Amino acid sequence: MLRILQRIPIINSSPLHHHLISQPSSQSLRLIRQLHSLKLLKGDTARLPASLKTFIEENARLCQPDNIHICDGSEAENETMLASMQAAGTISPLPKYDNCWLARTNPADVARVESRTFICTEKREDAVCTPAEGVTGMLGNWISPVDYESSIMKRFPGSMRGRTMYVIPFSMGPIGSPLSKIGVELTDSQYVACSMRIMTRMGSAVLNEIVDKDVDFIKCLHSVGTPESGKVEMESWPCDPQRTIILHKPDTNEIVSYGSAYGGNALLGKKCFALRIGSTIARREGWLAEHMLILAITAPNGTKRYIAAAFPSACGKTNLAMMKPTLPGFKVECVGDDIAWMKFDANGNLRAINPEYGFFGVAPGTSEATNPNAMATIHKNTMFTNVAATSDGGIFWEGLEGDLKPDITVTDWLGKPWSPASTTKAAHPNSRFCTPITNCPVMDSQWEHPDGVPITAILFGGRRPEGVPLVYEAFDWKHGVMLGSAMRSEATAAAEHKGKVIMHDPMAMRPFFGYNFGKYLEHWLSMEKRCEKLGGKMPKVFHVNWFRKDAGGKFLWPGFGENSRVLDWIIKRIDGENCFQQTPIGNIPSENSINLNGLNTAVDMKELFSIDRDFWLKETEDIQKFYNDQVGQDLPCEIQNELNGLKERVGKM
Ligand code: GTP
Ligand code: SPV
Ligand code: MN
Predict the structure, then answer these.
(1) Residues 6 or more apart in contact with residue 503 via CB below 8 angstroms
(2) What kind and span of H or E run contains 333?
(3) DSSP string, 111-180
(4) Residue located nearest, by CA, to atom 4 of ligand 1
(5) 466 Cα–ligand 2 center, Å
(6) How far apart are CA 593 and CA 568, in angstroms?
């Protein structure tokens, strides 16, 4: 047995390999035989550095694909994959637009699966906080190295049988930027390969970086899998929802994902790499990897500011990132809509890049009225997933009712006839468009600048129907970090949660922490000293809430382009204008300092900014309970001090 194994060229030894060596079985024998018959469908392995070659070989041996295809990212390659997916019924063309496609997933595979997402470290406390006795931790899941290996071995052997393994070299961030990082994803899904080509810089140029510079890459393994029964439920969308698992091993920069082809579960550059693994690298290297949009706003006087904003999933990042300001003379340009990697430069300016190359945006609610720039982006080279289709070859979802012509019929995301009279939704609430950033008409000229853009303000915000004002400013950095840590929001469709409960979602990162949240807060706090040493100035921190409702359940604030009025106030504060009044929770705009000129809906500004003592007493209690239950001894004392201060100020109201 061992002799057979030794004949296989193994240059590097990884845990997967050890597993094969240490537990020889008839199964591993089969794996080995399989490797010898593997065909390389496309690509040249001779030039690959040993580390990459080994990574591909070991996983091919494990997953037993029929073929291996090293992606070059070319147009021709993309067309071939699209045609093959069309033939398989995975996607259908949308002839109303230019090279746009509709994918329908297995209805069991429509969102991220947070409960099946794990961080693997030797010690549990490196990955997650220690919750209070009897409390289930909600700030990530830990898995031991032993269970990590066995989870893989229970799922991956032979998981790619009958399929091709695509090797996807990709860069998060502009190729060659000092802020960028490279990954290689192995996947048996053409849908994932085509989507990665949209979402990241993918193909030969990245492979060349790996070959020429022998740079380290993040190892990403993905398989849609096959159910244990061996029976694929929906041939056009193979997956294994029963056994889906998403694993991360920060110590070795490894990501392993099985069973789902949807979004953050499968496009591994996004949440798995850029946030979970990214945040652990960022901590080691002294920077921040965050669930944030990045925008540029230019005021009528010509000054341009860059702002980053952390809102939980489906809480308005894409909308704000490319908004069309209603306030005359203002211009908003987009740098990114979901993820920011931010690092201080030599002068202490916090510089941000968007590591992505595409938008994976929430479809429902997107319309000419809410986000005209997104509408202008998505009619070319776009992959739509789980939206509804129209009889004239177009797309439809909730929010586009106004565009429906009477002679047009609609097919819902499940493929069934749908009409406005239907009681079900036409599009899945987490249906999405996957579209190239370069289509967006309002990208900032600096969006690909290798050094990033200088961030002057950081916004936190969630869906808070009650009690939380439209905007308030943190007193200082520490207070700002506490604000972020105490963030809460209504649950959304982007994950598997049910109902409209208000959930804690600290820093909008709850599903995306790569390490212990208490240590993450410590890292955030430490940014101030780092900046000071370099002689820089920290960004100002604000909390925003577009989603406050009146007693009748109507939004108090019109939102979308009108949010430019809030950005205008924020800029005035960055410039040091005395346009605020202090309250126990932070600084809110002084009367009339939010520019309402030309606003054509009546807004009850009093109610929008009201701060109710009882509400905030309860809020501080809830935050304390969250800290006690979920963070425990990992909570930095500075953060507890900040909460004590808030409690005291609210108590004195
Ligand atoms: P992820 O991609 O999941 O991280 O979400 P996101 O934060 O980018 O959310 P997105 O911008 O796609 O917005 C999600 C939903 O919020 C859509 O239905 C929007 O119409 C709605 N929305 C966005 N901005 C506003 C706003 O200012 N007011 C209101 N009322 N709704 C908004
Ligand atoms: C989110 O849920 O925050 C998203 C979508 O951006 S996904 O990529 O599926 O995580
Ligand atoms: Mn997101």
Answers:
(1) 138, 488, 489, 490, 491, 497, 510
(2) strand 331-336
(3) SB-GGGEEEE-SSHHHHS----TTPPP-S--EE-HHHHHHHHHHH-TTTTTTSEEEEEEEEESSTT-TT-
(4) 313
(5) 25
(6) 10
Rounded-to-integer distance, Cα 188 and Cα 67, Å = 10
Query: CA separation (Å) from 512 to 118, 260, 274, 321?
Result: 10, 17, 9, 20
CB environment 202-212: b (16+ within 10 A), e (fewer): bbbebbebbbe
Q: What is the pLDDT of residue 379?
A: 97
Structure tokens at 169: 């070299």
Assess whether the C-beta atom of 509 lies below 6 angstroms from ligand 2.
no
Percentage of the chain lying above the pLDDT 90 cut: 90
Q: Is the CB of 431 under 6 A from ligand 1?
A: no
pLDDT at 13 over 60: no
Q: Which two tokens stand for residue 272?
A: 């798995």
User: Positive or negative, the Cα torsion across 207, 211, 215, 218?
Assistant: positive
Is the CB of 270 inside a 6 Å radius of any atom of ligand 2? yes
CA of 263 to the centre of ligand 2 (A): 6
pLDDT tens for each residue of 261-291: 999 999 999 999 999 999 999 999 999 999 9
Residue located via tokens 């009528």: 300
Q: What is the pLDDT of residues 529-574, one digit of tens each?
A: 999 999 999 999 999 999 999 999 999 999 999 999 999 999 999 9
For residue range 439-448, what is the model confidence (pLDDT) as tens digits? Answer: 999 999 999 9
For ligand 2, say whether the CB of 263 is within 6 Å of any of its atoms.
yes
* Closest residue to atom 12 of ligand 1, CA basis: 362
Q: Which residue, 350, 361, 203, is CA-closest to 289?
A: 350
Beta-carbon count within 10 A of 562 CB: 20
pLDDT of amino acid 47: 83
226-245 average pLDDT score: 96
Ligand nearest to the CA of 290: 3
pLDDT attached to residue 2: 30
The confidence band for 239, taking pLDDT boundaries of 50, 70 and 90, is very high
List the catalytic residues.
315
Q: Which of 360, 385, 496 to mutate to test the pocket of ligand 2 (most atoms within 8 A of CB)?
A: 360
338 CA: nearest ligand 2 atom: 6
Best residue for ligand 2 mutational test, from 196, 271, 383, 510 (most atoms within 8 Å of Cβ): 271
- Do residues 294 and 354 lie in contact, with contact meaning Cβ atoms separated by under 8 Å? yes
The pLDDT confidence band at residue 41, using thresholds 50, 70 and 90, is low
Residue in 112, 113, 262, 273 to alter for ligand 2 test, most ligand atoms within 8 A of Cβ = 112
Residues lying with their CB under 5 A of ligand 3, a single-atom ion: 313, 338
Q: Is residue 275 in contact with ligand 2, taking CB distance under 6 Å? A: no
Q: Quickly count helices (H) and strands (E) in the chain.
A: 19, 32
